[in-house]
Amino acid sequence: MAALTWGRLVKRKMAADSASASASASAPVLFSLLARSRRCHATVGTSKEDEDTHAHSTSPSILGPDLPDIWSSLPTSPPRPIPIPIPIPIPMPPAPPTIIDGKSIAQEIRSHISKHVINLKNSYDKVPGLAVILVGHRRDSQSYVRYKIKACNEVGITSFLAQLPHSCSEDEVIDSVTRFNEDPSVHGILVQLPLPQHMDEERILGAVSLHKDVDGFHPLNVGNLALRGRQPLFIPCAAKACLQLLLRHQIDLVGKHAVVIGRSKVVGLPTSLLLQRHYSTVSIVHAFTHRPEEITREADIVISAAGVANLVRGSWLKRGVVVIDVGTNPIEDPDSEHGYRLTGDVHFDEAVKVASAITPVPGGVGPVTIAMLLSNTLDAAKEACRSSV
Ligand SMILES: Nc1nc(=O)c2c([nH]1)NC[C@@H]1CN(c3ccc(C(=O)N[C@@H](CCC(=O)O)C(=O)O)cc3)C=[N+]21
């Protein structure tokens, strides 16, 4: 059998697509698609109209535009070399990298949410409520839960906390979830992860009502995120935070190579799905990947969520790369207030010399993740208003 060349495959695909797409797959079409998507990106989360017409957390901007697949044609013959005059090299110092300020972006989002919370109270006499279930006494989980409750208080969201001992049974956690599912003053439920080893995480997360799943971990929400043309009710907060940071800094995603390090349900998996919905070419690097540094070095965008302090060295990164560091790894530090400090997955001091933009830890993705949780809770409360009238 004659081997199918890449060019033939592309031509076949183009022939199939041309039935649905009236335009041919010429460069101008591709450019107009790119321009369309750029216009979409430019309006993300900033326009009032966008906020109001798509009050839902899964507004098209965060999910990306829904464009048809039109493959650009590959050149049939190698391009003829054009003589280029040799420029005289002028040494240019590299531009200093943008340090992406998650703290101030989170502050901006929170003040926007506060206004919506007040409107909801005034118009519907409804106050959004978030319930957090914390099992066990992990120091880091306790801190994260504290941040979440503090952030709720700041924007006027009511918070409920169920604290259960490490030794409690799986059914006791499910009972707690069920109580919050039935409570009309609770609009969002978050089960803090990780749960103790003896518990079936999927069973517990599956018990959270789909309409209160502000973490976006319910299988139906994950499935709808994975399927183009579908809209999940909620997108996981950390993944949404990564996209917020990229879109707010107008980082082009279409056709760009994004390497996601880690494949967790909380960050890696949903972020890779979301990036695909924005037309990035996504590679997922994980603990079993051979030569992760070589794959990562190819990336235009690196999103690291491995949970390993300083895993990503400067030598793993291409010059000009955009780095989003989701890692929050506690490192023993007797000099700091709580006996530990947080470090990202990325060796910041090395990466900052190579990257064009980078998030710090702390003060990068973390605060925006919490702002996204508030935003999901607000959306859940708005949806509850809609379905009760
Ligand atoms: N059901 C569930 N949902 C989660 O979203 C979830 C979870 N479980 N388990 C753990 C991870 C981790 N996570 C963080 C959120 C905010 C910060 C955050 O705000 N970090 C601050 C830390 C400030 C400091 O401690 O100094 C910062 O990076 O600036 C960190 C980590 C959410 N997670």
Automatic annotation (TrEMBL):
GO terms for biological process: photorespiration; tetrahydrofolate interconversion. Keywords: Hydrolase, Multifunctional enzyme, NADP, One-carbon metabolism, Oxidoreductase, Photorespiration. Residues 100-215 form the Tetrahydrofolate dehydrogenase/cyclohydrolase catalytic domain. Residues 236-383 form the Tetrahydrofolate dehydrogenase/cyclohydrolase NAD(P)-binding domain. GO terms for cellular component: cytosol. It comes from the Eukaryota. Residues 43-67 are annotated as: Disordered. InterPro entries: Aminoacid_DH-like_N_sf, NAD(P)-bd_dom_sf, THF_DH/CycHdrlase, THF_DH/CycHdrlase_cat_dom, THF_DH/CycHdrlase_NAD-bd_dom. One of its GO terms (molecular function) is methenyltetrahydrofolate cyclohydrolase activity. Pathway: One-carbon metabolism; tetrahydrofolate interconversion. It catalyses: (6R)-5,10-methenyltetrahydrofolate + H2O = (6R)-10-formyltetrahydrofolate + H(+); (6R)-5,10-methylene-5,6,7,8-tetrahydrofolate + NADP(+) = (6R)-5,10-methenyltetrahydrofolate + NADPH. Homodimer. Catalyzes the oxidation of 5,10-methylenetetrahydrofolate to 5,10-methenyltetrahydrofolate and then the hydrolysis of 5,10-methenyltetrahydrofolate to 10-formyltetrahydrofolate. Belongs to the tetrahydrofolate dehydrogenase/cyclohydrolase family. PANTHER family: BIFUNCTIONAL PROTEIN FOLD 1, MITOCHONDRIAL, C-1-TETRAHYDROFOLATE SYNTHASE, CYTOPLASMIC-RELATED. This is Methenyltetrahydrofolate cyclohydrolase. It comes from Rhynchospora breviuscula. The lineage of its organism: Eukaryota, Viridiplantae, Streptophyta, Embryophyta, Tracheophyta.
